[in-house]
Design a protein that fits this description.
The complex is a heterodimer.
Chain A (H helix, E strand, L loop, with lengths): L2 H10 L4 H19 L4 H10 L4 H15 L7 H35 L21 H8 L4 H9 L3 H24 L8 H15 L12 H14 L1 H10 L8 H20 L8 H20 L10 H32 L16
Helix pairs in contact in A: 1-2, 5-7, 5-10, 5-13, 7-8, 8-9, 12-13, 12-14, 13-14
Chain B lengths: L2 H9 L5 E2 H11 L8 H13 L3 E9 L2 E8 L1 H27 L11
Antiparallel strand pairs in B: 1-3, 2-3
Helix pairs in contact in B: 1-2
Classes of the chains: A mainly alpha, B alpha+beta.
Chain lengths: 353, 111
């Protein structure tokens, strides 16, 4: 086996085992033939040092996503994972959309643009940005709202492109600020950006075979989400003098814990295969949130209230674990009850006639 | 029917072909416009096999490598004919309108 073949087979390991069993040798033969060259010296060089091109690898990744995160016609397990990733992505995108929509309202209020609301305290008033570019740069973060709308309306590639607009400018700002020591070095903004990038990648689960997103409930979820999360949060912060003890990883822990608690409470009456993707999706979100909470703990080291903040953070992590472990256990048991992906898949059979 | 599926079925009309044979023929048929990557080819081929439009013809070993040849089924031939007729009808529609509609700058399209 040539080095090129080894490398290509390594890429093919992204595909499910059952699929590889039927198609791998055929795919390898087709790939190697596509790399053949009339000149024996060039062919030999390619066999030793050649690698599958980026476009070839991308086509395999795309096929792997379609097979592992299947649509409604896919085997039950593949569909369950596909729906789970799609639901988790929608919930995470919804959170971003809700928070930015609320922050637009808060920014307008603090700038004195909402006349019918009582004026904010002078200490809260915003200094207008220095120029048009600065304003545009700050507005990039709001792109999560159109990105979410695009995803719900079925424009996956648009959603991915717009979400990148929301990720890159804040990342550049953080990099510049941390490099020039305007703000202390911290893990949190980078951990959050990493999750955002994972979110953009996870949107690949909304492929052609995936069922369309039910528009009405997911659009209605924006105003409901605003009423449930940022509104009470802002009211507490506006009326209380207590310092901010709930950072973004902490708030994520609270939201995920609450969502799983509601799910566990309502679960007894509805136990069916159709609810499994929700359990899996919440488990995925819990794992991500827990990882975010743990990797951002070092940011508290330099802070004056590190003991209080650390205790709160550990409590948040324990709360997530306390609800996520039973949910994950049940989800995995339900997943095992589903029929396994057949080894022969949709592979061709040798004709008899 | 997607464009790659259309070209793969078209490539199999005259003779059974193996994986790379399909890639090469599709590139030629589309005058180089559709260059199938291996992942895309098999992603489409497994659907066509699953839908019963394509089936395995035979297996051969060539220069130590496995070659599986695929052929069009009767259902595949019908599906391709229906799609080709649909595309041709669309093309006729556009051509007729273009012929009938006077271009304000160059005048009517010569027939």
């Amino acid at each position: 086996m040539s080095r090129l073949e080894e490398r290509y087979r390594l890429v093919l390991r992204l595909l499910p085992a059952g699929y590889r069993q039927e198609w791998e040798d055929d795919m390898v033969a087709a790939f190697l033939e596509s790399m053949d060259d009339d000149d024996p010296e060039t062919a030999e060089y390619a066999a030793d040092y050649g690698r599958p091109g980026l476009a070839e690898v991308a086509s395999i990744v795309s096929l792997a996503v379609r097979l592992r995160l299947g649509g409604s016609q896919a085997p039950a397990r593949s569909y369950a994972w596909g729906q789970a990733v799609r639901l988790a992505t929608l919930m995470a995108m919804l959170t971003h959309a809700v928070m930015v929509t609320a922050s637009i309202a808060v920014t307008l209020w603090l700038s004195g643009k909402i006349a019918w609301l009582p004026a904010p305290a002078p200490a809260w008033a915003l200094t207008p940005p220095s120029g048009i570019w600065h304003t545009a740069w700050n507005l990039a973060g709001y792109a999560w709202l159109p990105a979410y709308l695009a995803l719900v309306l079925g424009h996956r590639r648009v959603a991915q492109a717009v979400a990148l607009l929301a990720i890159v400018p804040p990342a550049v700002t953080t990099a510049v600020e941390q490099a020039t020591n305007d703000v202390p070095l911290s893990v949190t903004p980078w951990a959050v950006r990493l999750i955002d990038i994972l979110l953009v990648l996870a949107m690949a689960a909304f492929h052609r075979d995936a069922p369309p997103v039910p528009r009405r409930p997911w659009l209605l979820a924006i105003p409901i989400g605003i009423l449930l999360v940022p509104l009470p949060l802002f009211a507490i912060q506006a009326t209380s003098q207590a310092p901010r003890l709930l950072d973004w990883p902490g708030l994520s822990c609270v939201m995920v814990t609450a969502a799983i608690a509601v799910r566990l409470a309502g679960r007894a009456s509805r136990q069916s295969a159709s609810t499994l993707p929700w359990s899996l999706a919440l488990t995925l979100l819990a794992a991500t949130t827990l990882a975010l909470r743990l990797v951002t703990l070092p940011d508290y080291i330099g802070q004056a209230q590190r003991t209080a903040l650390g205790t709160i953070a550990v409590t948040e992590a324990i709360a997530v674990l306390a609800v996520a472990l039973p949910l994950a256990g049940r989800a995995i048991r339900a997943l095992r009850r589903l029929p396994p992906i057949p080894a022969d898949g949709q592979a061709p059979t040798t004709p008899t006639g | 029917m997607t464009e790659p599926a259309f070209f793969i079925l078209t490539a199999l009309v005259d003779a059974p072909r193996h994986g790379y044979g399909i890639v090469a023929d599709v590139a030629e048929l589309s005058r180089g416009r559709v260059r199938l990557k291996i992942g895309s080819l098999y992603g489409t081929l497994d659907r066509l096999v699953g839908d019963g439009l394509v089936e395995l013809d035979r297996e051969e070993v060539w220069q130590g490598r496995l070659r599986r040849y695929y052929r069009l089924t009767e259902r595949g031939r019908e599906a391709l004919a229906v799609e080709a007729e649909r595309l041709a009808a669309n093309a006729r529609l556009a051509s007729t309108r273009l012929r009938d509609q006077r271009n304000p700058i160059t005048g009517p399209v010569p027939s």
